[in-house]
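Intended use. Records such as the Haloacid dehalogenase-like hydrolase domain-containing protein 2 entry shown here are meant for training and evaluating sequence-to-structure methods. They are not intended to support clinical decisions.
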Amino acid sequence: MTPIKAALIDLSGTLHVEDQPTAGAVDALQRLRAAGVAVKFVTNTTKESVGSLYDRLVAIGFQLERKEIYGSLTAAADYVKSNALNPYYILTDDARKDFPEGDSSRGHDSVVVGLAPERFSYEYINEAFRILQQSKGSARLVAIHEGKFYKTKQGISVGPGCFVKGLEYSSGVKSVCIGKPNEYFFRSALPSGVDPSECCMIGDDPSDDCLGAMAVGMRGFLVETGKYQPELYDKDSLPKVSGIFRNFAAVVEHIIERVNV
C-alpha cells in the first residue's frame, strides 16, 4: 500500500480522555513526527475554544502548535462569518469565544448547536425551536457536529446529535452539519501537497472519523480507547475500517513500520 505521509488525529478519546493521555500517546506522537509523518489534529470537540483545548493538551504533556489544531468550531465560525449570520448559540461560554460577536440591532437568523451539556435544557432548546419555527423556513440550523455520544471519565455520555435531530423534527428545518464526517471538513484538513491515499485518519468513532475519511480516499484507523465499544460487536459485524487498534500508540507502530515501504 502507499506509504503514509500525513496523519489526521482525533483528540478526545484518541489522544486523551479529559485530562489523561491515552497509554503511550505522548511518546507515540513524538515518534510519529520523527518518522517524517506530517500531523494535524482534527476534532469535533465543541465544549472548549481552540485556545483552551491547546492549553489542555500542552498541560498534559503533548508537544504541538496551536495552528496544528483544525476543529469543527473553527469551520463553523468561518461558516457563520462567510454567511453573515447572527445566530442564537447553544454553546459553552468558552466555545463561544471562537465565534463573532452577536448583532443586537437585528434578530437571530440561525441557530448554532455544539456540545454544551449545561445548555441542553428545555429553556435553551425551546428558544432555538421558536427562532427556527417562526422564521417559516428562512433560518438556518447549524450543527457543529451531530455526534451521538462521547467518552468521559464517567463513561459514555450523550452528544449533541439528538438535540439537533430533535430541533429538526420539531421545526422542520434540516440542519447543515459542519464537522466530521463532512467531506469538506476532511478535504480542508488535508495537508497541502498530500493526496488522500497518502493520508490516514486516526480516531475513536467508526463512522464520523474512520468511514468519513475513507469516503474521500484516506485510510481510517480505529482505536478502542474512546467511544468505540468493541464489546457491542461480534466478529462478523465489526466496522469495515482500515484497521482496529487498542490505542493510538499501537496505530503509530503500524504506520512507522510502513513509512519506508
